[in-house]
Amino acid sequence: MFDGRKIILASQSARRRELMKYLFDDFEVRPSDADETAPVGVSAEEIPEILSVRKALAVAKDCPEALVIGCDTVVVLDGVIFGKPEDEAEAFLMLKTLSGRTHRVVSGVCMSCEGKTMSFSQVTEVSFYSLSDGDILKYIADCPPLDKAGSYGIQDKGGLFVREIRGDHYNVIGFPVARLKVELERFEKILKS
């Protein structure tokens, strides 16, 4: 897939970098400097795809022949975005709000190459058990949540909060690699046509 072409991941996420290795042995990491301000008048679930396009295009402008992949992930509950918390107090409030409820994890992914782009969104529903204040405080102490949308990581002890998941597990980590593989195959055919 995309043999001989430079592959660039437009993200600084260590988790995305690890998952990208499922698809490519050799790729470059080049974080995007794109504006990540959410556009006004757009639903919470549309925002990750819009931001993923911005990220991919910001990197692709300097290397148009490369395959650039951008991604953005948010947690959504009742139409409200739970992004990365500013501090531990906000992380506590987020987790308290998610406790005992079902939220949606939405990732937007964009592929850009030779002036062409293709993007998609992936949604996974995650249901939490009811969490005590002690559960939340222990998690925050053990697994710093400030770099995680929704203040938790399913790949660490945050997985202990999860009662049920409906959809792609990797999407909750922040990179829907199985869907990306399928979409990359489609995108490669478009580029060759």
Structure, explained:
The radius of gyration is 17 Å and the shape is elongated. A hairpin with a 2-residue loop joins β5 (102-113) and β6 (116-128). It has one domain: Maf protein. It has 6 helices and 7 strands; from the N terminus they run βαβαββαββαβαα. It has 193 residues and is of the alpha/beta class. The protein starts with 6 loop residues before the first strand and ends with a helix. The longest helix is centred in the C-terminal third of the chain and has 16 residues, at 177-192. Strands 1, 2, 3, 4, 5, 6 and 7 form a 7-stranded mixed beta sheet that branches. The mean pLDDT is 95. α3 (88-98) packs across α4.
Can you lay out the helices and strands and say which pair or pack?
Elements: E1 7-9, H1 14-20, E2 28-29, H2 47-60, E3 67-77, E4 80-82, H3 88-98, E5 102-113, E6 116-128, H4 133-142, E7 162-166, H5 169-173, H6 177-192
Parallel strand pairs: 1-2, 1-3
Antiparallel strand pairs: 3-4, 3-5, 5-6, 6-7
Helix pairs in contact: 3-4
Helix and strand run: EHEHEEHEEHEHH
Strands, count: 7
Radius of gyration (CA) equals: 17 Å
How would you describe the shape?
A: elongated
Fraction of residues in H or I helices: 25-40%
Low-pLDDT regions? none
The number of domains = 1
What is the makeup of the main sheet? 7 strands, mixed
CATH topology term: Maf protein
Indicate the proportion of strand residues.
25-35%
Mean pLDDT: 95
Q: Please report the number of helical segments.
A: 6
* Content-based structural category: alpha/beta
